[in-house]
Amino acid sequence: MNLHGLADYHMHTTLCGHASGSIDEYIERAVELGLDEIGFSEHIYLYHLPAERRDPELAMRQEEMSLYISMIEDARQRHSELPIRIGLEADYIPGHEAELDRILNSFQWDYVYGSVHFIGEWGLDDPRYIDDYSKWQIDDLYARYFGLVTDAAKTGLFDIMAHLDLVKKFGYRASGDLSDLYHEVAAELAGTGVCIEASSGGLRVPAAEAYPHPELLRACHNAGVLATIGSDAHKPEHVGYAFPQLVRSVREAGYSEVLRFKNRMRTFQPLPDAAAK
């Protein structure tokens, strides 16, 4: 497989508490695949909770932020053959925007992913709490989840909205037609200037479908929302996962180029033809 012309910006490290493999192994896998740019985007510590309530299996610790930065900077020195970006994946928690803004401004990141993993205190993508789906009428859950996604985008804190429809992770699907909701979400995102991530991570979970749903991806393209791609790698073998399939989906939605990031500045990169075959 040759993924030349593509970048994978969504890769984690063991600091998050639920990933495995060394940084060098992720980088070596990227080189093996022919990726020409990568980025790490570790889960920010759960800044909205007191330190004693922060789950070390979900995100790095506050005191590990400087370690994370030095780990990536050291890796850049060891692997000058490959551009390596450094970013964050930050949860959107309503009411804590000012605190997150302060954290994000503490370092010159290359990009920041915004994500919605929590509705209140419920971690909706955490298998430990999957039984809580039974407490919801699923159509209402989808509406609530996407409301948080668009609220997150409107803060201006994030460059990329990660795994846009993560709510489907465990295969719980809305019963009704989501076309109107998808078009509403796309229009809201377009008004913020944020871009979205097309992620192959959804292919590795019970949903068995890339994020976002093809119809939502198409709606975003039609609304003028820009995109990037990522694997949400938590193991070295996840790097560039199913990228040829992912690129085909992105092309079918209408995209011919995706974004690259450096110092939170965007550039456009044409999607290579070879990866779409």
What structural keywords apply?
single chain; 277 residues; alpha/beta; seven-stranded parallel sheet; two-stranded antiparallel sheet; 11 strands; 30% helix
How would you concisely characterize the structure shown here?
The chain is of the alpha/beta class and 277 residues long. The chain has seven helices and eleven strands.
Structure, described:
With 277 residues, the chain is of the alpha/beta class. The protein has helices at 23-33, 65-78, 97-104, 138-154, 179-190, 214-223, 243-252; strands spanning 7-11, 37-43, 84-91, 111-115, 118-119, 122-123, 160-161, 195-199, 227-230, 257-262, 265-270. Strands 1-2-3-4-7-8-9 form a seven-stranded parallel sheet. Strands 5-6 form a two-stranded antiparallel ribbon. Strand 2, helix 2 (65-78) and strand 3 (84-91) form a beta-alpha-beta unit. Helix 4 packs parallel to helix 5.
* Class based on secondary structure composition and strand pairing: alpha/beta
Secondary-structure element series? EHEHEHEEEHEHEHEHEE
Radius of gyration: 17 Å
The profile of the biggest β sheet is: 7 strands, parallel
Q: Number of DSSP strands?
A: 11
**Helical percent range?**
25-40%
Mean pLDDT: 96
Report the span from N to C terminus: 11 Å
Shape: globular
Strand content: 15-25%
Taking strands numbered 1, 2, ... along the chain, how are they ordered across the largest sheet?
Answer: 1-2-3-4-7-8-9
Runs with pLDDT <50, length 5+? none
Instruction: Please work out how many helical segments DSSP would assign.
Output: 7
